[in-house]
C-alpha cells in the first residue's frame, strides 16, 4: 500500500488554490486554478496535498454537501528555515497564528489556516541541522 495524497474538500476552490500554490509555494500538477481538482507537491518528497471541490464529492456522498464545521484536518509541512519561510509567506498573504516557537526540544513549529479553515503546521526539525 502507498499513500497517494491527502485530499481536502473545499468550497472556495480558487482561494485555496492560491493559498497552497501562491502563498505556500507548492507546485500545482495541472494548473486547474478553478477546480474541481488539483494536486500540489513540495519541491522535495513524494507526498502531495490535493484539493477537491466539496460539491463534486457531494455527488458521491450526500452528507459531504453539508457545510463543514470545526477543525477537520491538520496539514503538516516540513521546512528547513522556519523563520525565513514564515516571513516569506507572510509577505505573500499568509497570517501566522502561532510561532515560530519550540514545540519540543527537537522541533520548532508555526501554525496558520488556509482559506477554508484547515490548520497548517509548519515544522522545522532541529535534529536535521548540521
Please report the number of helical segments.
3
Strand order, sheet with most strands: 1-4-3-2
Number of strands: 8
* Mean model confidence by pLDDT: 88
- Categorize the overall geometry: globular
Order of helices and strands: EHEEEHEHEEE
Distance between the termini: 34 Å
Q: Beta-strand percentage? A: 25-35%
Largest sheet: 4 strands, mixed
Rg, alpha carbons:
15 Å
Low-confidence stretches: none
Write a brief caption for the model.
It comes from Streptomyces dubilierae. This protein has 130 residues and is an alpha/beta fold.
Q: Topology, please?
A:
Layout: E1 6-10, H1 13-23, E2 27-28, E3 37-41, E4 49-53, H2 54-58, E5 74-78, H3 82-91, E6 96-104, E7 107-113, E8 119-125
Parallel strand pairs: 1-4, 5-8
Antiparallel strand pairs: 2-3, 3-4, 6-7, 7-8
Describe this structure in words.
This protein has 130 residues and is α/β, with parallel strands linked by helices. The chain is built from three helices and eight strands; from the N terminus they run E-H-E-E-E-H-E-H-E-E-E. It is globular. Strand 6 (96-104) and strand 7 (107-113) form a beta hairpin. It has a four-stranded mixed β-sheet with strand order 1-4-3-2. Residues 2-125 form the VOC domain. It comes from Streptomyces dubilierae. This is VOC family protein.
